[in-house]
Amino acid sequence: MIRLFSLDDLNSILQIESQSFPKSPYDWTTFLNLHCLYPETFLVYGNPSNLQPEVSCSLGVDPERPLHRRPEARGLDAAERADTNHGREEEKILGYIIFSRDGHIISIAVHPQHRRKAIGTQLLQRALKTPHSKKVWAEVRRSNQGAQTFYFKMGFQITGMVPNYYGNEDALIVERALPALEE
Predict the structure, then answer these.
(1) What is 118-171 written as a DSSP string?
(2) How many folded domains does the chain comprise?
(3) Sequence-distant (≥ 6) Cβ neighbours of residue 144 within 8 angstroms
(4) Domain check: are 120 and 162 in the same one?
(5) Domain residues for 27?
(6) DSSP-assigned beta bridge partners for residue 161
(7) C-alpha to C-alpha distance for 161 and 141, rounded to whole angstroms
(8) What strand order describes the sheet that includes 135-141?
(9) Please, are residues 140 and 174 in contact by the beta-carbon 8 Å criterion?
(10) How far apart are CA 150 and CA 92, in angstroms?
(11) What is the pLDDT of residues 16-46, one digit of tens each?
């Protein structure tokens, strides 16, 4: 099942991230910032054996304990004070996607033990259904043949390259044009 990311998902996302991108994984502060920037388009795929209703990404913050403005001062304490579970049973997060409304795929990953089960396809299809401009695009490591194959299978094409995007490795720009929306 696909639903909005909640702060309860952070540890699972970090595990998937470190296994999927061992050369340059995002850290927890990056994910918290992405959650703030893209609250409506940061989605997770939960284990379908534990079907849960979709929940909104609201923070139940204790008013007696103010949030700090600086992310480094906030730490995980902000995540600990957030009540985002809303009575859901524990579910296993198998993948995630973060994208902007204009069509940029910021990141997508599926737990290595759950790849090739259409989880990434379902996440990307959700992004493709969201109203965008005229295209969806992402950066992919030149050495990441698995990601390239996935994007090609989903109808993407290489449209460019960014030298040294990943430090010492180039990124390929993959893009898929979207059909014009009828008014």
Answers:
(1) SHHHHHHHHHHHS--SSEEEEEEETT-HHHHHHHHHTT-EEEEEETTTTSSS-E
(2) 2
(3) none
(4) no
(5) 2-133
(6) 172
(7) 10
(8) 135-141, 171-177, 157-162
(9) yes
(10) 23
(11) 999 999 988 999 999 999 999 999 999 999 9
